[in-house]
Design goal:
Layout: H1 18-31, H2 35-70, H3 76-87
Helix pairs in contact: 1-2
């Protein structure tokens, strides 16, 4: 995965075990890439995944706060029935939230 640089490059360093360094070097040789390129790719993928996970967590917290404030909700049965209609290929409107 190639990334385009949109900001200046900043150098950093990390300490890894000799065993991990050897594994990284072996993988880099097999993939015909530099260990640096593999580390950058791994960090990019990790940070992207964790940003998505955090956004999902924040959305859940906001949803919970909204429920606490308004009391609006759907029951499991209401949501399951609607999803079953969608799964059956029917163009069903979502149920209305209620207190």
């Amino acid at each position: 995965m190639q990334t385009q640089r949109t900001s200046p490059v900043a150098a950093t360093s990390i300490k890894i075990s000799a065993a991990l360094k050897a594994r990284l070097q072996a993988l880099a040789e097999v993939r015909q890439r530099s260990p640096h390129a593999l580390m950058v790719q791994a960090l990019e993928e990790y940070v992207t995944r964790e940003e998505k996970r955090e956004a999902w967590r924040q959305e859940g917290l906001a949803t919970w706060e909204e429920y606490q404030r308004t009391g609006l909700h759907l029951s499991h049965a209401e949501a399951a029935a609607w999803l079953a209609e969608l799964a059956a290929g029917n163009d069903a409107e979502p149920p209305k939230c209620h207190i």
